[in-house]
Amino acid sequence: MFGDIFNAQFVASSIRVAIPLALAGLGGVFSEKSGVINIGLEGMMLTGAFTAVAVTNFAQNPWVGVLAAILVGIFLGLIHAITCITFKANQIVSGVAINLFASGITVFFSWLLFGETQIMAKTNLPIWGLSVPNIGEGSAFARSMITIFAHHSPLVYLTIIIFALSHIILFKTPFGLRLRSVGEYPQAADTMGVNIVKMRYMAVITSGALAGLAGSFLSLEQAHFFVKEMSGGRGFIALAAMIFGKWTPLGTAGAALLFGFGEALAIRLQGVTAVPVQFINMVPYLLAIFVLVSAIGRATPPAADGVPYEKEIG
Amino acid sequence: MKSVKKFDYYNLLEKITPLIAVILALLVGAIVIILIGENPVFVYKTLFSNAIGNRDGWGNVLFRATPLIFTGLTVAFAFRCGLFNIGGEGQMYIGTFLATWVGFTFTNLPAFLLIPLCILTAAAGGALWAAIPGILKAKMGVHEVIITIMMNWIASSLTFFLVLKFKAAPTAAMVAAGVKQMIPHTSEIAQAARLPRLYTILKFLNINFPSYNQVNVSFFIAIGAAILAYYILWKTNLGYEIRAVGYSPLAAEYGGISVAKNIILAMMISGAFAGLVGTNEVMGFKYRWRQELFTGLGFNGIAVALLGKNHPLGVVLAAILFGILNYGGAIVNIFTEGRIPRELIMVLQAVIVIFVVISDEVVKRLIRQRRKVV
Questions:
Q1: Contact (CB, 8 A) for B342 and B333
Q2: Predicted ipTM > 0.85
Q3: Record keywords: Transmembrane included (chain A) (predicted)?
Q4: Distance from C-alpha of B175 to C-alpha of A228, rounded to nearest angstrom
Q5: pLDDT over 80 (residue B270)
Q6: Closest-CA residue in chain B for A80?
Q7: Out of A89, A104, A289, closest to residue B147 by CB
């Protein structure tokens, strides 16, 4: 039974499940590194998931759907930025409002445009990479390697590129240094001539774009449909991944893979064990709580995380 | 004298920001309605005239406002302690399920025992579920927002498991009609566990009220809960400590107030309010747990609390406003034959929240500037 569960397909599906968590978590990294908490990732993801399927079906082209999901994420990110940065409102409240808004607007348009709350995606993105050889052709090792590394949706490769780039941008460029300084000690950054408002806007909008992309992967690639509330807390699990990953892109990716592993395991265990499916469904959420508790004392958020910047003070 | 007058003006402005936010949100809604190709004047007229134009409408509004008062108090109470409890949804699930279980298990008890027992169980269930994130926050510093959200999903799975475990057998009528699949639900609670509908009381007072209206005694429990929340927060030592922790945990700790104890207690009281949703939905309305009967009420409580400025009186008023929007929205949906989805109301609620938050900040800034100038 062990071998039936932990095989190459399992690893590949762990990666697929981890992608939306990783992308949204990376969105959290950008936003919080600049000092803005983004609880709205969940809603941005949900709206992205809906938009991706809806636009794909109208345009008959999944790429247009993915692009639209990113744009919608940017739009919601902009709303969050205006509320939190320009109006300096409570960031958690603004994020919660975005989540409420997303729950309503996705079902609203889903009724309006399609007359139902579950929409099938008419086309999907292609699979890129090498084709998996049939059993008997080639070695089992090659088959496993191709399944794990080279037989995925283009968005999987895109995610890997995005993570590599994000790591470089955040830690190896002047821009990244400024972004981090804005989240750690904005007063100092301000005296150095860094435009705090501009940096934070860019970071929050980036986080929206990433959450939108995460949503498109969830609906177009993982489920092949949209259904109301399909994000199912993943935006928050992504935040847990971000915390566990110590607010770094690579750490977040690792934590997302851990969650992906947990969720993929939960999916695999359904029907195999005598444990009721409802308890298996709890696994990702229990894992998130466990991870958060164990991250205590090890993970420190950026110093100015969640604090609006007031020029007069200091 | 003049400056005093101006100060009052701004004070008033601060008090009515929710009203401004609601009007702005209704304007946004009007734009959406125009974009759909419907007439906003007709839609709003239908919405309000049906919701508050007659007794039946009012009854329906109060029936829908009742659970929102509970979940609104949940968020508002925790907020006074500086906590953001967005786990009302899960606390409501657990409290309500436990109360339902008591209601269909201890069927031999008389009403004067069973009703209080069910109510207390509902509150205790919510309190227990909220105690977990409370303890994690107080003892380990884990942020309550993510934990309460995770607890919502766990509660949802747990109650789904429980409803299947206690699933009621299909009735003879269902078997005869050939119904195979149905929404999972438990057996009905005992007659002695049911809260009377309002019309039975109004009939007693010779007031004409439709007997099919679902508003029930739970509305008064909700009002009582709001008064209790006010009393605890502003008239007791516990409330003073909770608010002190909310203002400044460090100052409170320095003043000899246990931050950890108050965080846990505030979370538990907050969760107890959420559990009480069961008094309306099960004890006063469906008389059984039905899967997805009240999904989303916990989340709507967040909007209610913010609109009500986290004050019990504000929560009651905001809940009634949302009751009007919810019931009126459902009527509009029927009148326009589904061309206006009722989710428009959800969108309106979110827009209201964003506007409340922004207008609050803007007014606060105006006042601060004003004071500086004066």
A1: yes
A2: yes
A3: yes
A4: 31
A5: yes
A6: B354
A7: A289
Q: Helices B111-135 & B144-165, crossing angle to 10 degrees?
A: 140
Among A94, A289, A291, A300, pick the best mutation site for testing chain B contact (most B Cβ within 10 A): A289
* Distance of alpha carbon A218 from alpha carbon B336, whole angstroms: 33
| CA distance linking residue B282 with residue B278, whole number of Å | 5
State the sign of the Cα–Cα–Cα–Cα dihedral A279, A281, A287, A288. Answer: negative
| For B304, nearest residue in chain A (alpha carbons) | A97
The domain spans of chain B are: 1-38+342-374, 55-335
Q: Which domains are delineated in chain A?
A: 2-122+131-295 (1.10.3470)
Q: Cα(A237)–Cα(A287) distance, rounded to whole angstroms?
A: 9
**Minimum mean pLDDT among A179-193, A288-302, B170-184: which range?**
B170-184
Is B36 in contact with A279 (Cβ distance < 8 A)?
A: no
Note every long-range contact of A58-65, with CB atoms under 8 Å and residues 24 or more positions apart, other chains counting. Answer: A60/A122, A60/A123, A61/A123, A62/A121, A62/A123, A62/A124, A62/A125, A62/A220, A63/A125, A65/A121, A65/A216, A65/A220
| Nearest alpha-carbon partner for A80 in A44, A45, A105 | A44
What are B223-242's pLDDT values in tens digits? 999 999 999 999 999 999 99
Q: Do A288 and B140 touch (CB under 8 A)?
A: no
Which has the closest alpha carbon to B83: B133, B122, B39, B157?
B133
Tell me the pairing of strands A225-227 and A118-120. antiparallel
Q: What is the distance between the alpha carbons of residues B229 and B69, in angstroms, rounded to a whole number?
A: 11
